User: Fold UspA domain-containing protein from Arion vulgaris.
Amino acid sequence: MADQRNCVVAVDGSEHSDYAFDWYYKQVHREGDHVVLVYIPELNDMLHSSRWSNSVYVFDRDVMEAMLREEQERIKADLEVFAQKLKDHGLGGKVKSVMASKPGEGIIKAAEEEHADLIVVGSRGKGTLRRTFVGSVSDYIVHHSHVPVFVCKHPHKHVHPEETH
Assistant:
């Protein structure tokens, strides 16, 4: 049997990350791989909550604690779904949640911590114009990773050039 590979697969619950996971499983996975599903939760949902709309400088400890609890529960539920995905496919590995302001940085950090041999990430398929201004998580990972990166484009979910304006 070949040496164990550490394979990082970025997940966020989207169709794009589901496709990337399935692609990894069907095309790249080898017996004995240690799979690390890396999840970067988006914490800014809490910051943009409607609860803040009329409270510019009001700090309500109870509201903040309730929002943080809700956020922790949501993250925990997401992690359980991802762990079940590993189990359903009979894969050895783990799910890792990484707090990062930028998903690309979090995925690179996790890959380094896990001594990844490869990274698999989905692509949202943003058009060229949008990617130029917004940036792309997959672009960031490709340019900052020290290991091979597979960027999986969903064959039925990509943006056509005429849709980018």
About this structure: The radius of gyration is 18 Å.
